[in-house]
Amino acid sequence: MSEKNTSRYDVIIAGGGITGLTLACALKSTGLRIGVIDQREPQAFAKDYALRVSAINRASLEVFNAVGAFERMQQLRVSPFREMHVWDSTGVGQIHFDSAELGLDTLGCIIENNVIQLALQAVVQQSETIDWLCPAEIDSLDTSDVQKQVRLTDGSTLTAQLIVGADGANSVVRKAMGIELVRKSYQQQAIVCTVATEYEHQQTAWQCFLPSGPLALLPLADGSCSIVWSLDETRVEQMMALDDAAFSEKLGESFEYRLGWIKTVSTRAVFPLGHGHVDHYVQQGLALIGDAAHNIHPLAGQGANLGIMDAACLADVIADALQAQRQWNAFHTLRKYERRRKGDNRLMETTMTGFKYLFGNNNPFLTEMRNIGLNAVDHAGPIKQIFINQALGEQ
Ligand SMILES: Cc1cc2nc3c(=O)[nH]c(=O)nc-3n(C[C@H](O)[C@H](O)[C@H](O)COP(=O)(O)OP(=O)(O)OC[C@H]3O[C@@H](n4cnc5c(N)ncnc54)[C@H](O)[C@@H]3O)c2cc1C
Fold first, then answer.
1. Per-residue pLDDT for 30 more than 70?
2. Three-state SS for 93?
3. How many angstroms separate the alpha carbon of residue 19 from the centre of ligand 1?
4. Which of 64, 357, 368, 369 suits 241 as a labelling partner, its CA being 20 to 30 A distant?
């Protein structure tokens, strides 16, 4: 643990993933003493692309910029994307977004999760008021008092006036709050890996809706792509059993050879997919952000973006309360954060689940309707603008 460590904090952030670290950085100028706890360091930066990448929208990039972390991300490695191309493999429906048509330089950036974490962590470690407590595993919490307590597995205890659960889908903080997240499985898993393609990716994020699940190719700065291929669990098992050549062939075929042949250039990893949303984000001195509060399907690349917005919003609410000399960790203050974020998060969860079932269905009527729908959206200015705003993270 850091030498700056004391056992008393104003804020303890449980979890130093993307959302926990964003919150710490966003709170750094409040003067509050903050401890960020994580059980493991982010994966070190390497020459080869990490398998976990995220499509980060413009609104989230602005947050990274505002907290002073985006420049460090750029120094490490980011991959801007300028276009998005989405189509239905069973018909002729398609939709296309071009940053040039919107007068923007990019739609967002594909960034490795560890690059995001390392850049945010560097900001945290430069701060006099934030301790990076890692490796340290949270065992349990005592939330009965005004001063909340976090017990670590090494036996030590930390106290704070506010504990924020940014500790992911299996959040210990959420359990201590007695809040249940009913996580519904999609009975699907996502295969991720890095691939080379015959034709250039054109800085375009490609997504093909197959009846078996969505397949995304996300453009990386060196010309390769990161794939996220969602499939039923049994299909995942079959695909993972294939050697690289056979897997690459299946991938190219499923992608309709839109970028020519595809060749895997990394190992493959599998992630379970589910969705869920808690009913309450906050209690007196306690709050949940990111995956600890909501899980969605990665088909629109929004989970991390929602968590980043949660973090920015919670930091704003706390900073406003401090400025107005109101009780910054009180239930009624934290409720403002919940009210501002819950609607957006729930809408995204419901929309993604709807998309998943709509596009994962072979019913001829639905097939026809979704093709008509995609083309209609592509040609209808105001409706397309709503989709664009969602993709950019703007309301
Ligand atoms: C295949 C796939 C592709 C995705 N693609 C995208 C995308 O393109 N764009 C996008 O926006 N989102 C994407 N997502 C979603 C995104 O990855 C998650 O929403 C995001 O990483 C959640 O971040 P988090 O910080 O809330 O939680 P996590 O990343 O789960 O971080 C939680 C942290 O808490 C720590 N922790 C947990 N328990 C303890 C404990 N007891 N003690 C100490 N530390 C603890 C963990 O070590 C971890 O570092 C994707 C998800 C998947 C599965």
1. yes
2. coil
3. 8
4. 357
Picking from 30, 39, 58, 297, the residue whose alpha carbon sits closest to that of residue 166 is 39
Q: Summarize the confidence of residues 259-274 as an average pLDDT.
A: 96
CA 17 to ligand 1 center in whole angstroms: 6
Q: Among the atoms of ligand 1, which is closest to the Cα of residue 136?
A: 43
CB 137 within 8 A of CB 158: no
Residue 385 has pLDDT above 90, yes or no: no
CA–CA distance, 371 with 93 (Å, rounded to integer): 4
Structure tokens at 387: 């989709």
pLDDT at residue 31, rounded to an integer? 96
Nearest atom in ligand 1 to the alpha carbon of residue 57 is 11
Report the largest interatomic distance among the alpha carbons of the chain, rounded to a whole angstrom: 64
CA of residue 53 to ligand 1 center, whole Å: 11
216 within 8 A of 191, measured Cβ to Cβ: no
Residue nearest to atom 44 of ligand 1 (CA): 38
DSSP category for residue 330: S
DSSP, collapsed to helix, strand or coil, labels residue 129 as coil
Q: What is the pTM of this model?
A: 0.92
Q: pLDDT (tens digit, 9 = 90+) per residue, 35-53?
A: 999 999 999 999 999 999 9
Which residues share a beta bridge with 274?
185
* Rounded Cα distance, 377 and 385, in Å: 9
Q: What CA dihedral angle connects 156, 23, 303 and 233, to 10 degrees?
A: -10
- Is the previous residue joined to 135 through a cis bond, with omega within 30 degrees of 0? yes
The reported pLDDT for the residue numbered 344 is 86
What's the CA-to-centroid distance between 194 and ligand 1, angstroms? Answer: 19
Taken in order 158, 162, 165, 166, the sign of the CA dihedral is negative
Residue at token pair 């130093």: 16
Query: What percent of the chain clears pLDDT 90, i.e. is strictly above it?
Result: 76
Please give the Cα distance from 308 to 297 (Å, whole number): 17
What is residue 369's predicted lDDT score, i.e. its pLDDT? 54
The protein residue whose alpha carbon is closest to atom 49 in ligand 1 is 17
What does the alpha-carbon distance between residue 171 and residue 15 come to, in Å, rounded to a whole number? 9
State how far the Cα of 376 lies from the Cα of 365, in Å rounded to an integer: 16
DSSP labels, 13-61: EE--SHHHHHHHHHTGGG---EEEE-SSPPPPP-SSPPS-EEEEEHHHH
Return the residue whose CA atom lies nearest to atom 30 of ligand 1. 168
